[in-house]
Amino acid sequence: MSKSFFPPQRTLMGPGPSDVSPRVLAALSRPTIGHLDPEFIGLMDDIKGLLQAAFKTGNELTLPVSAPGSAGMEAVFSNLLEAGDKVIVCQNGVFGGRMQENVERCGATAIMVQDDWGLPVDPDKLEQALVSNPDAVAVAFVHAETSTGVRSDAQALCALARQFDCLAIVDAVTSLAGIELCVDDWGIDAVYSGTQKCLSCVPGLSPVSFSERAITRIRNRRQRVQSWFLDMNLIMDYWGGDSKRSYHHTAPVNAMYALHESLLMVQEEGLEAAWARHDHHHQAFVAGIEALGLSLIVSPDARLPQLNAVEIPPGIDEAAVRRHLLQSWNLEIGAGLGSLATKVWRIGLMGHAANQQNVLLCLSALGSTLQSMGAAVNPDAAMAAAHEFYSV
After folding, report:
1. How far is CA 211 from the centre of its chain?
2. What is the pLDDT of residue 244?
């Protein structure tokens, strides 16, 4: 006979989901009300304003899609693209490949700009592709590539898109609230993210934002959006159009409570302070990792503070390490994806998890585990280096 499920208390330091604050978990347990209740509509307005602040945008069409980040990605592509369109897609990891998949499923053509995994997108390559494809309608790239831990220069890439009269489509799933992201100042036309990364909310919602240029394109489509559920022409009216709050779908009310609480926490800390906190603990973690005898695959100038791709020592069974950390330390770190599978661990310092206690826990647990498996590492030096960083 099945019983109530009580999960173990884990420390989540993988690529997501991240640790959720007790304050956000408590918000989930508040009484459920109707999704058209005037009180809930007021909450929707507040969520919208808080998301605009987090994205640093005044875009009217800014909202959380009632589904995970992958649905946010699909919402962006399915609304902006039609059959026969041409899109320049920059790929330097797994999630650029998912962009390509979305472009092609819309009946559009993806012109791929490839960079090695672990390197940022090369603006010169993008410019060459734009010159060679003057009929392209959009440029798409991942700001913070979760599969490699690399940050691309979103501002420069968006400037190129605008120079060639293309829409700029940006994956900010891992960057929102973790590193600088300025939707309006950088000229981003469509951006999507997830709640389970640096916002430290529960999985299941995808914040998106569309510029006026993007909205104009959506309004003037030749064909209907192929997805009814993700059609922004319909969702606009639910999130505040001319026919304010017309029924579209039953919103995940309690998940919205959680998102609102997580956004309040970002507001209270300050967005720039949140970016600085992620970088601060990343620097401590890197000091410890290097003293341990390991290294990161991404150069310092392009690293994501919230996602660290750590090289696996020779002869070490990476899955056995992760299994031991989970079973003995209740600590979750992530495996590599694609061409980096078995080559790196992906260790997250996202949102609520980006703190000194977690940095020290991970260094201690990883160091002792690797030492017990015969790796040439120095756990004492790792802890000393992190403590020295924090003592300054």
Report:
1. 19
2. 60
Out of 235, 253, 268, a domain closes at 268
For residue 298, give the CATH number of its domain: 3.90.1150.10
Per-residue pLDDT at 243: 44
The segments of the chain whose pLDDT lies below 70 read 241-244
Report pLDDT for 59.
97
Number of domains in the chain: 2
What SS3 state is found at 361? helix
Summary count for the chain: helices (H), strands (E) = 14, 14
Residue 9 lies in a domain: no
Task: Report the binding-site residues for substrate.
Answer: 346
CA-to-CA separations, 90 to 152, 267, 334, in angstroms, rounded: 10, 32, 24
Torsion-angle region of residue 142: left (phi > 0), alpha (psi -120 to 50) or beta?
Answer: beta
Q: Which domain holds residue 159?
A: 21-268
3-class SS of residue 343? coil
Could you read off the pLDDT of 20-56 as tens digits, one per residue?
A: 999 999 999 999 999 989 999 999 999 999 999 999 9
Question: In 3D, which of 16, 2, 1, 19 has the Cα closest to residue 265?
Answer: 19
Is residue 169 within 8 A of residue 190, CB to CB? The reply is yes
Query: Does one domain contain both 279 and 244?
Result: no
CA atoms within 13 A on the CB side of 320: 9
Q: In whole angstroms, give the CA distance from residue 286 to residue 295.
A: 8
Pinpoint the alpha helices (H) of the chain: 22-28, 38-55, 69-80, 94-105, 123-132, 154-163, 183-186, 212-219, 232-238, 253-269, 271-292, 318-329, 356-372, 379-391
Q: How far apart are CA 299 and CA 94, in angstroms?
A: 19
Q: Which residue numbers belong to the known binding site?
A: 346
Residue 336 contacts by C-beta under 8 Å, 6 or more apart in sequence?
147, 309, 318, 342, 343, 344, 345, 346
Residue 373 sits in the same domain as residue 384: yes
- Considering the domain architecture, whether residues 120 and 181 belong to the same structural domain is answered as yes
What is the DSSP-derived secondary structure letter of residue 302?
A: G
